[in-house]
Amino acid sequence: MDFIGKDNIKVNRIIEEALLEDIGTGDITTESIVSPHLNKRAIIITKEEGVIAGLDIANLVFKKLDPTVDFQKRVEDGSAVKPHTILAEVSGAARVILQGERVALNFLQHMSGIATTTFKFCQEVKDFPVQIVDTRKTIPNMRILEKYAVRIGGGRNHRFGLYDAVLIKDNHIAIAGSIASAVNAVRAKISPLIKIEIEIQNLFQLQEALDTKVDIIMLDNMDLETMKQAVKITRGKVFIEASGGISLDKVKEIAGIGVDFISVGSLTHSIKALDISLEII
Q1: Is 102 a catalytic residue?
Q2: Which residues pair with 194 in a beta bridge?
Q3: 137 assigned to active site
Q4: Which of 120, 137, 156, 250 is flagged as catalytic?
Q5: Separation between Cα atoms, residue 207 and residue 169, nearest integer Å
Q6: pTM here?
């Protein structure tokens, strides 16, 4: 399960908080209807086509409620599935299956929606030497799961937070007074092994950024013609990232310009969940 394994403290905390939010002091409906001694079997099944991510998270949800629940995957994360595909089979106490159902599906549907959308973007640019990357535009406290789902869909992760990479943005430049001042201030503080990326919005800023010898230049919300000029000027000198309002119908054209990375906020910030359900057998 890569970096979202069962021993990850952050992942466990996310699941525990989600269960506490949903069940609270008890499931008054299920506890009124279902005997604590009744065992049942259920299947988790798709209702639409997509790419699956989050099966191990769904498993952990049920295991948090009852370690004896049996969760058998029928596909793996990253699988492209059709409607009516059985993803997993869950067996155990009926109360536990019903209590964990919504939380497990919420994670699975959301993460599969991200993986599905990421896969579509990656397919659009598969003939170009470019990487689709995510952003920090994630649901608070869900970033580790959302960025995992991006990777499952074929994308790559940009920085995880403010702590693991340098990205000098327009407000940093405004406070520092210039691109050069901002870059010099960062270089005076960080290890020379850390790459520096800077966000620019026009060709004048592009030249100033090149003069500072940063590692990556982000072209923020540039029109296609300006982006083409920027790539022509910088080719071979620095990595180039295109960013800002990147849509599925435009990503192929942007990839054809020759950028190295395309960052897409919509992979996580406005995703449509994949339709998945749990059915008692």
Answers
A1: yes
A2: none
A3: yes
A4: 137
A5: 16
A6: 0.95
- The reply to whether 213 belongs to the active site is no
Of these residues, 74, 120, 159, 169, which one is catalytic? 169
1 has pLDDT over 60: no
3-state SS of the chain: helix, strand, coil percent to 5? 45, 20, 35
Q: Which of 6, 41, 73, 102 is catalytic?
A: 102
Is 220 an annotated catalytic residue? yes
Q: How far is CA 7 from the centre of its chain?
A: 20
Catalytic residue chosen out of the listed positions 56, 101, 124, 220: 220
Provide the sign of the torsion angle of the four alpha carbons 74, 114, 135, 18, taken in this order. Answer: negative
Checking if the pLDDT of 125 tops 80, the result is yes
Give the C-alpha separation, 200 to 220, whole Å: 6
Q: Strand 166-168's sheet: what is its strand order?
A: 131-133, 261-263, 239-243, 216-220, 196-200, 166-168
pLDDT at residue 116 greater than cutoff 70: yes
Contact 267, 134 (CB under 8 A): yes
So where are the chain's domains?
2-117+272-280, 123-269
Question: Which overall architecture, per CATH, does domain 123-269 show?
Answer: Alpha-Beta Barrel (3.20)
- One-letter amino acid at 26 equals G
60-98: per-residue pLDDT in tens?
999 999 999 999 999 999 999 999 999 999 999 999 999
* CATH H superfamily, domain 2-117+272-280: Quinolinate phosphoribosyl transferase, N-terminal domain (3.90.1170.20)
Catalytic option among 56, 134, 199, 241: 199
199 catalytic residue (yes or no)? yes
Q: What is the pLDDT of residues 180-204, one digit of tens each?
A: 999 999 999 999 999 999 999 999 9
Separation CA 254–CA 55 (nearest Å):
33
